[in-house]
Design goal:
Blueprint (H helix, E strand, L loop, with lengths): L2 H17 L3 H38 L6 H48 L3 H6 L2 H43 L1 H48 L1 H6 L3 H54 L6 H42 L11 E8 L2 E4 L6 E6 L6 E4 L4 E8 L8 E8 L4 E6 L5 H8 L7 E6 L2 E2 L5 H6 L1 E4 L8 E2 H6 L7 H10 L3 H5 L8 E2 L8 H13 L5 E5 L7 H15 L3 E5 L11 E6 L2 E6 L1 H7 L2 H7 L3
Parallel strand pairs: 7-14, 7-15, 10-13, 13-14
Antiparallel strand pairs: 1-2, 1-3, 3-4, 5-6, 5-8, 8-9, 11-12, 15-16
Helix pairs in contact: 1-9, 2-3, 2-5, 2-9, 3-5, 5-6, 5-9, 6-8, 6-9, 8-9, 13-15, 15-16
């Protein structure tokens, strides 16, 4: 079997493993389906007995007695009632199974997404990822709730009807089989052509959603540069491609049912003609009741085949969606083989020991054969000969070596693309270095667990990201167990307390839409407060004041100075006024540190830093 043919099978088997978690409920569903299908076939088969043994004698009787017919009709009604009840029960049970499976799929997707590296989000649009949670998951709903039970019901019905028809009249059964063969040929030809278009449709739907998400986020830029017509044209092209794929897929899907219905009608007429001829000729013991029962059974035989053919498109779409979901679930997770963790400690008899109190001091906890060893997290950082590239053929950092002592402020300046932010990304282990080593308090960061490493770093980014919730919750995001007093203290430290108090409900004010009701400066102040409440040994400020006006910057800078006191700080800035008091300034260009020193010495050297300071290029 080729890979092309085996992939849908693998996808289907993985999907069935999700459904198989509910075996007991599925067993009940299948039992109800059997009862429903058998009840329908039994009712159709009973028509022969009803006509030949009850209705025909009454027509020939001078004084008809209807009590026997009434009992027969009551029995038939009871059979159909059992089938209706079974159908109701299995449909309600399938709702529970479907929603449980979809919930589990979404849970697994979201949990797995949290373990993916930053690199994954660099190469996948947010809109396409959202499409997997919405459109692709939704395709599973119809398949699980309708296609699977209908397929099983149809299979049971086909077997039961075949047995009943063979018992009534084998020659007429052969005629039905011939018509069914024609139906299957049509399904193969028409249904197969629509499958590839449905898969392409799901892919194009993800692209369209990705483009819409990108344009929504960039709407201000679109309007500033008057690019409304251009983005409309691009969207029209993508939307047209989606429409073409959807039209092609549904064109074949929509003609399938009418073709199947007309073949069924043709079968119905042929059975009536052939059955009438056999009855008139007295061949095979064909009776009027037998013809009526056979006509009803033939309908019951053709209908499930038509239903299966219609569900093929639903299954194809669901498998296309499931394949995209499993592609996400199969993405490699962020590896973390670090064993050194971060612990809150206090000094007891000159020795660092674990502490349950609020963390005033942090320490690296290294496991050992004789017990854990604690090394105080002072914030000493060293890069030794670090090389890195996002791809192997394009190096970004070249031979970066630097040293930051505890409590020092280290600044990175340089043109856009020089590699400043990449340095801090490596410190967070968002990416793994190609060559060299980074030491944190003498411990290689590769030996530190990523969660512990990142808890030791407070980050304030240029692109602030707030979440729907109160101001309390947004600041406490830095440390979930922070008390109200600690949150207020962090806000005061960031000089955010005053403006928070002026909000309609103060700290209880709910922020919606990534803080859309706040100014850029206010959002940045909350971001700084969020980092402050963590109280980490190292702070990373990546263009933290770039979107704040000069007056607000002075207020923020005062709070930042308090925040940075006693901590190692890495600052990335374009405004050189914010880094003049740095202990060391690293001037970067094309991934290399080309100058280093303090503000005065770099100005005196009249090199690249001097040019940047003077505004020259």
């Amino acid at each position: 079997m080729t890979k092309k043919n085996s992939e849908p099978l693998k996808t289907a088997l993985r999907l069935l493993r999700y459904i198989g978690r509910y075996r007991a409920l599925l067993a009940f569903v299948f039992l109800c389906i059997i009862v429903s299908s058998v009840a329908g076939v039994a009712g159709s088969g009973f028509i022969e007995t009803l006509v030949d043994d009850y209705i025909t004698p009454l027509l020939l009787s001078e004084r008809p007695e209807f009590s026997a017919l009434a009992r027969a009709v009551a029995w038939l009604a009871l059979v159909y009632a059992a089938g209706i009840a079974a159908t109701l029960f299995y449909n309600r049970a399938m709702v529970t199974i479907t929603q449980s499976v979809l919930k589990k799929v979404r849970d697994d997707m979201f949990a797995h997404m949290q373990s993916l590296p930053v690199r994954f989000f660099d190469r996948n649009s947010f809109g396409d990822l959202m499409s997997r949670y919405t459109n692709d998951v939704d395709t599973l709903q119809q398949m699980i709730s309708q296609s699977i039970p209908q397929a099983f019901s149809s299979a049971i019905t086909i077997v039961a009807v075949t047995c009943a028809m063979l018992l009534i009249n084998p020659p007429l059964t052969l005629l039905v089989f011939a018509c069914v063969g024609l139906m299957l040929l049509v399904v193969r030809q028409v249904g197969g052509r629509s499958a590839r278009h449905f898969m392409a449709q799901q892919k194009m739907l993800g692209e369209v959603n990705g483009y819409i998400e990108e344009m929504i986020n960039g709407q201000k830029v679109v309007k500033v540069f008057c690019r409304e017509e251009e983005v409309k044209a691009v969207f029209d092209a993508k939307n047209d491609a989606l429409a073409r794929q959807a039209a092609s897929a549904n064109r074949f899907a929509n003609i399938l049912m009418p073709i199947m219905a007309n073949i069924g009608n043709l079968q119905y007429v042929l059975i009536a003609v052939l059955g009438g001829a056999l009855a008139a000729a007295g061949v095979g013991g064909v009776t009027l009741g037998a013809i009526g029962a056979f006509l009803s059974l033939s309908r019951s035989f053709a209908m499930p085949i038509a239903q299966i053919s219609m569900q093929i498109n639903s299954v194809v779409m669901a498998l296309a969606g499931a394949e995209r979901i499993f592609q996400l679930l199969d993405e490699e997770t962020e590896t973390d083989d670090g064993v050194v963790t971060l612990a809150a400690v206090e000094e007891k008899g000159g020795i660092l020991a674990p502490s349950q109190a609020a963390a005033a001091r942090w320490a690296w906890r290294r496991p050992g054969e004789t017990g854990a060893e604690y090394v105080e997290a002072r914030g000493q950082v060293e890069f030794r000969g670090v090389n890195f590239g996002y791809t192997e053929d394009k190096p970004v950092l070249r031979d970066i070596s630097l040293y930051a002592k505890p409590g020092q402020k280290i600044a990175f300046v340089g043109a856009t693309g020089a590699g400043k932010t990449t340095v801090t990304n490596l410190l967070n282990r968002f990416y793994e270095i190609t060559e060299g080593v980074v030491l944190f308090d003498g411990v290689p960061i590769g030996e530190i667990s990523k969660s512990a490493l990142r808890r030791s770093l407070g980050m304030v980014l240029q692109d602030t990201r707030l979440f729907t919730g109160s101001v309390w919750e947004n600041i406490r995001y830095g440390r979930l167990d922070a008390t109200d007093e600690e949150v207020v203290a962090a806000a005061r430290l960031a000089n955010a307390h005053d403006f928070i108090e002026r909000l309609p409900e103060g700290y209880d004010t709910v922020i919606d839409g990534d803080g859309g009701s706040l100014s850029q400066g206010q959002r940045q102040l909350l971001s700084i407060a969020r980092a402050a409440v963590l109280s980490p040994p190292v702070m990373i400020l990546d263009e933290a004041t770039s979107s704040i006006d000069t007056r607000t910057e002075a207020i923020v800078q005062k709070g930042m100075d308090s925040l940075m006191e006693g901590r190692t700080v890495f600052v990335i800035a374009h405004r050189l006024s914010t880094v003049q008091n740095a202990k060391a300034i690293m001037v970067m260009e094309q991934g290399r540190v080309i100058e280093r020193g303090d503000h005065e010495s770099l100005l005196a050297a009249k090199g690249r830093y001097y040019q940047l300071y003077q505004g020259a290029d």
